[in-house]
Design a protein that fits this description.
The chain is mainly beta. The protein contains 2 helices and 28 strands. It has helices spanning 132-135, 145-148; strands spanning 3-6, 9-20, 27-41, 44-47, 72-76, 79-94, 99-122, 142-143, 163-169, 176-198, 201-212, 215-216, 229-230, 233-246, 250-270, 281-301, 307-322, 324-326, 360-361, 373-384, 388-399, 402-403, 413-414, 417-428, 433-440, 453-456, 471-474, 482-489.
Length: 491
């Protein structure tokens, strides 16, 4: 009988000081300072109070381990802080009534630091070293903390990136302690030009340099012990666009973009390995190079009074430009026909097949959650009466297939889908009462709000002929057909 306890103590504050011009001249400016501080603790433990063996575990070598009076088999205590500050400024200058330049700079500094503690006690499993099939009622609980946590050092004995102190185990509490500390800083900015030849036309071009601070893959317990750090991400973003009104009834907004990522932060699951206490665990991994490019169009047309038609379309080509040697957690030995092995296999062993794990080449794979095509259509018509107005709305959306992982495989793909929604809104003439009746997904079609994810089915091995047998796919479904009525009243 296990009792799981989860606690979270998270508090933060931020300060921002802004200065801006207030004149009406051709030059406008703003600047400021920003500071943010967050402290975060998340103790989690699992207790087996009715199992007395946990109170006095032994070490794998046979000696007595630190006492465990609370009878925890799992105990982890991350404690981190984040301090961020920035200075920024921007100017807007109108050369003429139709031409405006925007330029801005920002310096950001992020410091994240803290520690994490963990203890693992194993009982009644072969992996513990002793099991009831061997010692019966004399089977002890075994403290496997030293085997399950990392040293914080690489093969050469140097501290891993982001680790400020190697792992030590407190002989009194049995908790392993690892300290993490890392700072990131970057100067980013933007420059853009707008041209407005008349009141109905706006043409613009913009370049921005983006930055996202790095972070830690919290989890002193293997397998993420060797990947404690995710480095900062940078992005060079280019965008051009056109906004155009044609007459009083038609409006078009068009934009094209090109994003060039460096060290793109992507979620990757590190697979389990045989011969130890490791389980699959998700970390954020830096993809060296990634590209996202495409265009968007929004068209708004009112052909007659009270009728409005809206269409939006976007095309996105988002892909990994360079990433090699990454192991697929659903196919660690790269047995799938879709796999693209890269480099030598090993040294880790796939717990499911007994084969060496094999890294793969992901260059050209689609980025997660990035369908190539998206379409949305909407028609609105309003009837006006003396007591109020009634507006009917019909919406249609369509999404292309997408992937939930950087591994572009059939078992991580959700198919394309569409959905039809209806909405009827009544507003009283005095604007006090609003009644909304709606139906979402009225055709009750299957939809997927993001790409699929996959995992191995326990006990199903993939051996011999390459196959995806034994891989389970999880599809994140949108809600089924839903009807509702909403009443709003303004006093």
């Amino acid at each position: 009988q296990a009792v799981s306890t989860y606690q979270e103590d998270n508090h933060w504050f931020s300060h921002e000081l802004n200065f801006s011009s207030s004149g009406d001249g051709p030059l406008q400016w703003l600047g400021g300072l920003y500071y943010y501080h967050e402290a975060y603790k998340q103790p989690v433990w699992v207790q087996l109070a009715n199992q007395p063996q946990f109170a006095n575990p032994i070490l794998p070598t046979g000696g007595a381990a630190a006492a465990n009076p609370n009878r925890y088999w799992y105990d982890t205590r991350p404690d981190f802080e984040d301090k961020s500050w920035a200075a920024f400024g921007q100017i807007d200058y109108k050369f003429t009534d139709t031409l405006k330049l925007t330029a801005g700079l920002r310096y950001s500094h992020d410091h994240k630091y803290g520690q994490e503690q963990a203890r693992l006690v194993c009982f009644a499993l072969i992996g513990c070293g002793t099991a009831p099939t061997q010692l019966g009622t004399f089977t002890p609980a075994v403290d496997i903390t030293s085997a399950a946590v990392g040293t914080g050092l690489d093969a050469s004995g140097h501290l891993l990136p982001g680790v400020s102190a190697a792992t030590v185990i407190d002989p009194t509490t049995g908790l392993a302690l690892r300290k993490l500390d890392k700072s990131w800083q970057a100067t980013t900015g933007t420059i853009g030009l707008e041209w407005q030849p008349d009141h109905d036309t706006l043409v613009y071009g913009k370049f921005s340099r983006g930055y996202k601070a790095g972070g830690f893959n919290s989890g002193i317990v293997a397998p993420v012990v060797q990947f404690p750090l995710t480095d900062a991400e940078h992005n060079n973003a280019f965008e051009i666009g056109l906004k155009k009104d044609i007459g009083r009834t038609f409006q078009a907004n068009l934009a094209a973009y090109y994003y060039d990522y460096r060290n793109f932060q992507a979620p990757v699951t590190i697979p389990a390995t045989s011969g130890g206490s490791t389980t699959a665990q998700t970390i954020f991994f830096n993809v060296p190079k990634a590209i996202s490019k495409g265009f968007e169009a929004e068209l708004n047309w009112a052909p007659i009074d009270n009728l409005r038609l809206l269409m939006t379309y976007s095309y996105t080509d988002a892909y990994i430009k360079e990433a090699r040697g990454i192991v697929d957690p659903s196919d660690p030995a790269a047995l799938s026909p879709e796999a693209r092995p890269y480099g030598a296999a090993g040294p880790a062993v796939d717990v499911y097949t007994g084969r060496l794990q094999q890294g793969q080449d992901l260059s050209g794979n689609a980025l997660p959650q990035a369908p190539k095509n998206k379409v949305a259509l909407n028609a609105l018509y309003t009837w006006h009466f003396e007591p109020g107005s009634l507006t009917g709305s019909v919406s249609y959306i369509w999404r292309d297939e997408q992937y939930g992982s950087i591994f572009m495989r059939s078992y991580n793909r959700t198919p394309s889908w569409d959905q039809v929604d209806l909405r009827l809104t009544w507003k009283s003439a005095n604007d006090h009462l609003t009644v909304i009746a709606y139906g979402k997904n009225i055709l009750d079609d299957l939809g997927y709000y993001e790409g699929a994810t996959s995992s191995r089915v326990v006990g199903r091995l993939v051996t011999g002929v390459p196959t995806v047998l034994g891989i389970a796919t999880t599809y994140p479904l949108t809600p089924p057909r839903t009807f509702g009525v909403e009443f709003q009243y303004k006093f």
